[in-house]
Structures are given as C-alpha cells and as structure tokens.
Automatic annotation (TrEMBL):
It holds the Pfam family Cons_hypoth95. One of its GO terms (molecular function) is methyltransferase activity. It comes from Gelidibacter maritimus. Keywords: Methyltransferase, Transferase. GO terms for biological process: rRNA methylation. The keyword Cell cycle does not apply. This is RsmD family RNA methyltransferase. PANTHER family: METHYLTRANSFERASE.
Length: 180
C-alpha cells in the first residue's frame, strides 16, 4: 500500500497481515482523489473515514493537507495501526474505535467528505442503512459528498440522495449528495 500524492507521496505503508481488511486499490484510490481534487481544497475540508481499516484513505487525505480527519473502525488492531502510522508521519488523524452504525446513530460530527468502505459481504439492507443514517442525522455539509465503496454486484442507485457511480476494477463507488 502506498500514498499516491501530497507530502508523503510514494511512501509505502505496511499494515500487519492479520488485519481483517480489503484496502482500496491504488488505482481506485488515485481515481477517487482525482475527482475530489477537482471539487475541494484538501486543506479546507473535514473528512470522516468509516470502516477505516488500514487507514489508507485517511493517510491520503492527510498527505494532501487535510487536517480534520476522523477514522472509525471497530477493530482494535486497525485503530492501533492507524494511530501508530499517524504518529510516525505526524498526521492529524483522530481515531474512534466503534461499530460504524452505532457511531452514525450518535455522532454530531459534520463532514465535507464521508468515505465508507464496508465489507463487500454486507447485505443491501446494511449498505442502505449507511446513507440513510448519514442524511437522517445531517452529518454531511451542504456541499459535501458521501462516497460508498462496494462490489460491482451491489446496486445503490435506487437510494435517496444517490447522484452517480464510478467503476474502477471490480469496485464501484457510489456518490451521494444533498440535492436542492
């Protein structure tokens, strides 16, 4: 796993093999950040990384200058790895060890970008609950974007606030935003 761009461009990050994760591929990560680069100034936004896993997405935002990043994962090993790596690189990443659904039900944290990478084995109901909780609890800023990574077999286009999707390899990224 490597950081694509920014202050730590090219740095390799080696998470422990025992973590229960499926990191976003470098190709997909680069494509997503090319989209985001055209929408936001990274040093002016807040980011919520749900099902953070190895922290790859959080590290990418931090490398590009984002200073308000919260990473949520329920696995202690993932949280520990994110904390250790963030400390090593002096990245401003705050971690929360929590079940993501419980976190979304209780947090008041609003963000410009919410990136969600749940297990691909989740059911449609579980995937559907994520945007439902984000918008029901008003966790996305007005010009914000919710990005949900999922397998290409999962179709989220029928959900409220769905905007569009992009396909990279065998992954789909569904984009949700507030519609005026």
């Amino acid at each position: 796993m490597r950081i694509i761009s920014g202050q730590f461009k090219g740095r390799r990050i080696m998470p422990p093999k025992k973590l229960p994760v499926r990191p976003t591929t470098d190709m997909a990560k680069e494509a997503i950040f090319n989209i985001l680069n055209n929408l936001y100034y990274f040093d002016e936004i807040s980011v919520l990384d749900l099902f953070a896993g190895t922290g790859s997405i959080s590290f990418e935002f931090a490398s590009r200058g984002t200073e308000n990043i919260t990473s949520v994962d329920e696995n202690f090993g993932c949280i520990k790895f994110i904390n250790n790596t963030a400390d090593e690189f002096q990245m401003p990443i705050r971690t929360v060890k929590s079940d993501v659904f419980k976190f979304l039900e209780t947090t008041k944290l609003k963000s410009d970008v919410i990136f969600v990478d749940p297990p691909y084995a989740y059911s449609l109901d579980e995937f559907s609950k994520i945007p439902e909780l984000v918008f029901q609890n008003d966790l996305l800023d007005d010009e914000g974007l919710l990005i949900v990574e999922h397998a290409e077999q999962m179709d989220l286009s029928h959900l409220p606030y769905f905007s569009y999707f992009k396909k990279y390899g065998s992954s789909l990224f569904s984009f949700f935003e507030k519609i005026e």
